[in-house]
């Protein structure tokens, strides 16, 4: 009796594993529009990796839009196509039920250990009544539209047909690999050791400190026209002319004043006699 129970349990475990397992090559062979994409999955060795999964979504490209994917080497093709394999189950009803208009999806390439930055992720965006897919890498083009649901087996595998291939920068061999963004260039006029703020430069610049007193002295030595006018026209508070400093000896006014003084002295002497 114990042997019968063990046999029955093994039978149920076999059924359970068969129900969750799938063969992507056999599935896609039923849809002639995706025969080239199916061949590429087998050529790259990705089909074997897909069949080991239990929950997956594949974005399949039709034969007429496959483009230059057929010209890739097997290694590059494996990397590129692994970004078309999402590690979760998505069918059209589930996409429509998403609250946000955009979603970030994890692909099989993310688990390869080779992904840098967002190379291992896809962006899905609801747009114009449809859904658009593309790489999550910054500035990557996202214009591959969802066309239809090819097949689905909830909640194990879903195959969604898309309009055209999308490019993940750094994977297809034609774009430069994604690298760390370059540091911001230092200001050419700043010190090599430090770059103080512009306001500090203005406050601490020795050249400007040296120039400031000169500019003040220049202003003091060269009064404005208004100052000249007020000096030539003394006000009631200004001291009498006799108290003011005598004009320079060489001036005409000085000579006239000396002559008048001599005349007064001579007149006084004549009057005394």
TrEMBL record:
Q: Which domain of life is it from?
A: Eukaryota
- Annotated compartments: Cell membrane
- Which intervals carry biased composition (Low complexity)? 185-198, 220-244
- Keyword list, A-Z: Cell membrane, Glycoprotein, GPI-anchor, Lipoprotein, Membrane, Proteoglycan, Signal
Q: Which residue windows does the record flag with biased composition (Acidic residues)? A: 199-219
Q: A GO CC term?
A: plasma membrane
InterPro entries attached here? Answer: FAS1_dom_sf, FAS1_domain, Plant_FLA
Give the span(s) annotated as Disordered. Answer: 172-254
**Topology in the membrane?**
Lipid-anchor; GPI-anchor
Q: Which residues form the signal peptide?
A: 1-21
* Occurrences of domain FAS1 (ranges): 21-158
Give the protein family. Belongs to the fasciclin-like AGP family.
Q: What does this chain do? A: May be a cell surface adhesion protein.
What is the designated name of this protein?
Fasciclin-like arabinogalactan protein 14
What is this organism's lineage?
Eukaryota, Viridiplantae, Streptophyta, Embryophyta, Tracheophyta
Encoded by which gene? Answer: LOC107813102
């Amino acid at each position: 009796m114990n042997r019968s129970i063990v046999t029955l349990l093994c039978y149920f475990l076999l059924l359970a594993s068969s129900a969750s397992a799938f063969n992507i090559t056999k599935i896609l062979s039923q849809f002639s529009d995706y025969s080239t994409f199916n061949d590429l999955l087998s050529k790259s060795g990705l089909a074997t990796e897909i069949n080991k999964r239990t929950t997956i979504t594949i974005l399949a490209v039709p034969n007429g839009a496959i483009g230059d994917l057929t010209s890739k080497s097997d290694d590059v093709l494996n990397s590129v196509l692994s970004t078309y394999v999402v590690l979760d189950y998505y069918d059209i009803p589930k996409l429509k039920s998403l609250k946000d208009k955009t979603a970030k999806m994890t692909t099989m390439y993310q688990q390869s250990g080779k992904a840098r930055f967002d190379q291992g992720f896809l962006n899905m965006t609801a747009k114009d009544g449809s859904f658009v897919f593309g790489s999550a890498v910054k500035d990557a083009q996202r214009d591959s539209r969802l066309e239809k649901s090819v097949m689905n087996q909830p909640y194990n595998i879903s195959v969604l047909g898309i309009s055209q291939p999308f490019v993940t920068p750094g994977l297809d061999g034609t774009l430069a690999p994604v690298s760390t963004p370059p540091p911001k260039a230092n200001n050419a006029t700043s010190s090599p050791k430090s770059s103080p703020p512009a306001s500090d430069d203005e406050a601490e610049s020795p050249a400007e400190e040296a120039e400031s007193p000169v500019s003040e002295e220049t202003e003091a030595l060269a009064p404005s026209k208004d100052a000249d006018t007020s000096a030539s026209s003394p006000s009631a508070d200004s001291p009498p002319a006799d108290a003011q400093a005598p004009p320079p000896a060489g001036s005409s006014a000085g000579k006239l004043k000396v002559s008048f003084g001599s005349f007064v002295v001579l007149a006084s002497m004549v009057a005394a006699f």
